[in-house]
Fold this sequence. Notes:
Blueprint: E1 3-8, E2 17-22, E3 28-32, H1 37-48, E4 51-52, E5 55-58, E6 67-71, E7 75-76, H2 80-88, E8 101-103, E9 113-115
Antiparallel strand pairs: 1-2, 2-3, 4-7, 5-6, 6-9, 8-9
Amino acid sequence: MAETRSFTCVNCPLGCVIDVQLEDDGTIGSITGHTCKLGEDYVRQEAVDPRRNVSSFVCVEGCLEPLSVKTAAPIPKAKIREVMEVVRALKLHPPIQAGDTVLENAAGTGIAIVATKSLD
Ligand code: SF4
């Protein structure tokens, strides 16, 4: 039996509430309540494969200051915990430049972890 789920669009302050009808086979039937294409694209992703950008900090050997890092692209929401565990286990050494990849394919997501600042 088809299921209807509601999402609040986060792309602008209007916060449209968008209803998505999910068919039995997991495909999207109808989308209502959006005001623009951004909202439609948002719920098409959010309804079937929700993803998030994740930021964290990593200790770097010999540095008192932690290194801020982030995912290079949004990762599946279901993988956030696993990605945070591998990020926490990283052993990094300076120098590191902002934008450097500090981990490829984090937890099998295909998404890299990159530094967001430089540490010498
Ligand atoms: S659907 Fe469009 S207008 Fe509505 S909250 Fe999303 S971005 Fe804003």
